[in-house]
Amino acid sequence: MITRMTWPELCRSNKFRGLWVAIDNCRYDHDTRQPIEGDVVDSDAELSELCARMRESGQSACTIVFCDSDVYVEPGHAFPDASQSAPAAS
């Protein structure tokens, strides 16, 4: 069940809301160090069940997050477009 999703997509998804979700190959916000995008590997309502499956499958390097409707990092916040940077001083 590997699907690439952004944090807002994950939180707002009816499929994952209210679940613990294991994500891999994450991209992190450089200020908050929270994941803002990743590959959804597995999910479960019970954290202990999810962790047990992750251990059994050998996927121990995943980030596990709880998905609710609160989006704590918007991807555009962490990585502004380079074209919007201030002009160089002359």
Could you please describe the fold and organization of this structure?
This protein has 90 residues and is of the alpha+beta class. The chain is built from three helices and four strands. It has helices spanning 7-12, 47-57, 75-78; strands spanning 3-6, 20-28, 35-44, 63-66. Strands 1-3-2-4 form a four-stranded antiparallel beta sheet. A hairpin with a 6-residue loop joins β2 and β3 (35-44). The model is unreliable at 77-90 (pLDDT under 50).
Summarize the structure.
The chain has 90 residues and is an alpha+beta fold.
Radius of gyration, CA atoms, in whole angstroms: 16 Å
User: What strand order characterises the main sheet?
Assistant: 1-3-2-4
Distance N terminus to C terminus?
Answer: 52 Å
The residue-averaged pLDDT reads 80
Low-confidence stretches: 77-90
The biggest sheet, with number of strands, parallel, antiparallel or mixed sense and barrel status, is: 4 strands, antiparallel
Q: State the helix count.
A: 3
Please give the number of β-strands: 4
Q: What is the H/E string?
A: EHEEHEH
Structural class given helices, strands, pairing? Answer: alpha+beta
Helix content: 10-25%
DSSP strand (E) fraction?
25-35%
Shape: globular
Keywords:
90 residues; alpha+beta; 3 helices
Give the helices and strands, then pairings.
Blueprint: E1 3-6, H1 7-12, E2 20-28, E3 35-44, H2 47-57, E4 63-66, H3 75-78
Antiparallel strand pairs: 1-3, 2-3, 2-4
